[in-house]
Design goal:
Layout lengths: L1 E6 L4 E8 L2 E9 L4 H16 L8 E5 L5 H18 L3 E4 L1 H7 L10 E9 L2 E8 L2 E2 L4 E4 H9 L6 E3 L14 E3 L6 H10 L34
Parallel strand pairs: 1-4, 4-5, 6-10, 10-11
Antiparallel strand pairs: 1-2, 2-3, 6-7, 7-8, 7-9
Length: about 230
Amino acid sequence: MKLLVIDTALSLCTAAVFENGTALAVRSETMVKGHQERLAGFVRGAMAEAGIGFDALDRIGVTTGPGSFTGLRVGLAFAQGFGAALDRPVVGVSTLDALAASLLGGLPSSGSVAALIDARRGQVYARFWRDGIAEGPAEALSLDAAAARVAALGPEPTLVGSGAALLAQACSTARIVDLTGPVPAALARLVAAADPGLAPPEPQYLRAPDATPPTRMPGQPRVPVLS
């Protein structure tokens, strides 16, 4: 199976081509913004290095969040448009699941894992696993709530992601893996294993956006405040 995987959810811009689990080409660069301007070039470069035509792809995978609102829209819109043009299935992959799968050797079958993304404003996006089984869906948690969940994981849990260091004090024996974003090979494994019908490329937003709509239209008079 030949795959194109795309990730713009966090602080990476990634486009990579895999065939049956083997990387043919990887383009990945750390960036806080600018994904929209760079992603198409990364895809072209990765496909050229892989030496295959776009019509040779079997499916496309993309991270669905949680993550940056702008970054998610860029990756999802590109993947969906690309999939429609090629008539190929587009598979959505949770950013937290991909971070957990990025651990060396993949998600362990024993022990505890917390995938944690720094969500700012005193929060993290989090998902927890015990012995390879997820303990509920992804959540947006306060640092205190997340610390309590980490402490309850037991001795020597693995904390992975940009929010891992924020929760290090919750368990002094925790193993910290500070990843900027998912490893492309982990994304490829999840995309290859997914059922396209059960993994739609839809954004996973765990809280409302920071921006709010205007309370009045341009030129509209302000409503007086009654005392």
